[in-house]
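Researcher: I'm preparing a figure for a lab meeting and need a structural model of a single chain. I don't have an experimental structure, so a prediction will have to do for now. The sequence is pasted below. Please return the structure as C-alpha cells so I can convert it later.
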Amino acid sequence: MSRQGAREPRVVFGFHAVLARLRADPSSVLEIYLDETRNDARAKDLAAVAERAKVHLMRVPTRRLDGFYGGGRHQGVVARIEIKKTSDSVDEILEGVEHPLLLVLDGVTDPHNLGACLRVANGAGAHAVLAPKDRAVGLTPTVSKVASGAAEMTPYLMVTNLARTLSELKERNIWVVGADERAEQTLYEADLPDSIAWVLGAEGEGMRRLTRESCDLLVRIPMRGEVESLNVSVSAGVCLYESARRRRAPA
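Model: Understood. Here is the structure written out cell by cell.
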C-alpha cells in the first residue's frame, strides 16, 4: 500500500493554505509568489511570516500566478512546496500506534470533498486517509487549498485493492466500520472500538457492495430534519469526532 504523490515540488495556493503550510513546516516551502497589487493586511501578514521563516517571497504580476494552473482562484498567492518523504505504507504509519484511527473513502472523486475530508481527518487526529486508486482523486492544488494544510500533513494512501486492504486492517485488530444510511444501528447506539477504520462512500452512491460486505459493522448517522443525507466530509467529521470523543477520559 503506497502513498499517493511523487516527491516533486507541488503548488499550493490561497492565503489560508499557504499560511498554514508556512506555520506548520516552513522548511518545506521553497518559495512564495505574491500578487504585486496586493498590499492589504493579509498580504502584509503573509510577507511578515515568510520573512521570519526566511522563505523567499517574490512579488509578481497576476498573470504569472494564473499561469501556474490555468487561472484558478489563487487569491493572489501561490507557493511551491517540497513534498517530504513520509511513511509509504499503513504498516509504517501505524507502527507504535496503540489505537489507530483511520478514514477510508470509497468513491470520493471530487477534489473539494477530498480536501474537506483530509482537513477534518487531520482535525480529529486520524492517522491516515485511504482510498482505492480506481475510485479516487489525487492530491491536486484544489485539494490542497480546501484542506488548508492538511493535505501535506495527513498521510493519504491510494491502494490497488480496497477489499484486500480492509482485510489487512482486520488482521491488525482494527475494526472496519461503515457509515450507511440503511444500517439498523445509529452511530450513537453502536459499541465502537478504539481501533477503528471508518469507511464512507461517495455522496449518493454510497459504498460499493464488496466494500460494504467487508465491514465488521454498519451504522447510520441519525437525520432529524428533512434532508436525507450529509455531504461526505460532514459525515466523516461526525464519525471521526464521535470516535475521538469516546476516547477521551472523563473530565
